[in-house]
Amino acid sequence: MVTFCAIDPERDRALVIPHRRDSFVVSFGSDEGYGRDEDYLSWLSMRCEQFPLGQVLAYEGRECIGQLELTLREGGQMGYVNLYYLRPEYRGRGYGKQLHEYVEQFFRPFAVQRLELRVAKTNARAIRFYEKMGFEAAYEEGMRGHEVYRMRKDMREKVEITPYDPAWPALYEAERESLLKELGGDVAAIEHIGSTSVPGLSAKPILDIQIGLSEMVPATVFEERLQRLGYRHQPGADDPNRRHFFRKGVPRTHHVHILTMDSREYRRHLLFRDYLRSHPETVAEYEALKKDLAARHGHDRGAYTDGKTAFIEEIVERAQKERGQE
Fold this sequence. Notes:
By secondary structure, the protein is of the alpha+beta class. The protein is built from 9 helices and 12 strands. It has helices spanning 13-28, 37-50, 95-107, 124-132, 168-183, 220-228, 264-278, 280-296, 301-322, and strands spanning 2-6, 55-60, 63-73, 78-86, 114-120, 136-143, 146-154, 189-193, 207-213, 231-233, 243-248, 254-260. Strand 4, helix 3 and strand 5 form a beta-alpha-beta unit. Helix 7 (264-278) packs across helix 9 (301-322). The longest helix has 22 residues, at 301-322.
């Protein structure tokens, strides 16, 4: 499994300089126009201060396999990939996708609208890889005397509602077993929540999994073990005293919500799920609402979510009345 370590330019100069130089040679055929090593280290030091988790070395075990340099531009609207490097012996072995997952996980909490990078027009292999990762060539430009493509990826995730998939319950059970093996006695309960937990309901194809705790603990208790399963912590979505949020997949495939079992949100998720499971007419209403919101707010996840709030709160209130909880 690939892990990432923040770069210290002085400590890691024997790695970062050859990586940067080799990237330049692979792109342009020679190091002509590369510049001075000390200028690069000075630039990298500034970026490490600004975005320490954006300048990282990638490791497989103890072996360094690559490097990423990530920054924000245009007031935080654009995530820019300055360097996307894999050592030659690790290319074509699936590691590039793991680096790309880190790229997207790094930028998502900043809510960037797009990602951009430059690639030499002659670097066909890299262009094919970036296209597989969802980038498109936006335009051509010059860079240090060479012709490059500026490639771009829209990060405004499209809300797509898909028909109910009968495989979702089995996928949840398999993931639940994996979570139990990793987290064991640290959790009190694991539940399938969200639309994929309701038979017959069309949904975004993302499994929402709720982990219940007897008392809240720091997210660091779970980070390393969940990372082994492919999850990344999303601290920007946390309320440290009430909820920790993890996600995996590019595009995303799983969410893990970690809450205490006595919290309102924990109970609310289960009330909403159980009411839908026993009221098919309400499932049809909710599905129609979601499809309408997705059509109107397909590239605005926040507006899509906000548009469901009143309906969800009404259903939770009904569920509480049915159970005599008022």
